[in-house]
Amino acid sequence: xxxxxxxxxxxxxxxxxxxxxxxxxxxxxxxxxxxxxxxxxxxxxxxxxxxxxxxxxxxxxxxxxxxxxxxxxxxxxxxxxxxxxxxxxxxxxxxxxxxxxxxxxxxxxxxxxxxxxxxxxxxxxxxxxxxxxxxxxxxxxxxxxxxxxxxxxxxxxxxxxxxxxxxxxxxxxxxxxxxxxxxxxxxxxxxxxxxxxxxxxxxxxxxxxxxxxxxxxxxxxxxxxxxxxxxxxxxxxxxxxxxxxxxxxxxxxxxxxxxxxxxxxxxxxxxxxxxxxxxxxxxxxxxxxxxxxxxxxxxxxxxxxxxxxxx
Length: 311
Fold this sequence. Notes:
The protein is of the alpha/beta class. Helices cover 37% and strands 28% of the residues. It has helices spanning 44-51, 69-79, 95-103, 112-118, 134-146, 164-179, 191-197, 215-220, 236-239, 242-246, 268-282, 296-310, and strands at residues 4-15, 18-29, 33-37, 59-64, 80-83, 152-156, 183-187, 200-205, 208-213, 226-232, 251-257, 260-265, 286-292. A six-stranded mixed sheet has the order 5-6-7-3-8-9, sandwiched between helices. A four-stranded antiparallel sheet has the order 11-12-10-13. A three-stranded antiparallel sheet has the order 2-1-4, covered by helices on one side. Strand 8 and strand 9 (208-213) form a beta hairpin. The protein is elongated, with a radius of gyration of 23 Å. The two termini are 40 Å apart.
């Protein structure tokens, strides 16, 4: 598939003296998922609310499925699905009654049975919302977002607070929606979720884009074969200087957090061997030492940490 389902240019949103979104550009290709990542307060939710037509930008332009909120708001609403960061469903009605209510908002929609089938809640159709588990309620809110047969789905942290199995159930629903040609804009704190579901990621901080591209492309900017995390005992982290660590073969970056040290390395075997030698020379014992392949989590920590320190 080709084309652009969602485009934003130069978005700015201020709340008094606070600039929550500061000149942000965004583009989501039709039939793909874009994950919008960033720390709390980075401007993610404000951005997605502007794109959904819930908040008016102070500056900038937005096109949703080729339409604008200023002139074609109702047409846009008929063609998008929205799952908010927090949705309070009426507890004293059933899952079926909940979907009947949402179905009534649209000129065209799926059948209630089809929507329940998509989220695998057919056997809960006549159960009251208050009796559903957290994961089941989350799937029900997804069914509400999907009832209108949307072309574009907005998901604002759709799996926060869910257990791993419930999270994977939501992932399956999103992947099925994409396989049928749907487009998704996702915000999430789970880097594994972003890597699995998205073709493109955008990392924001203080309302600005600080990195974007495919998940593997963004991860590749670390130029690391692996990440080494060590927790020295008895204040040993403070005895190790950055210059010493950067002088080890294959070590290209050093990050610190409390009593731990994280190294980005280009040659895992050489780096770990030299690191263990240095620790032996210094008489520093280890609590733990772990290595893993670089992930979006590492990029996120690297980029936002550096940016916040420079601010």
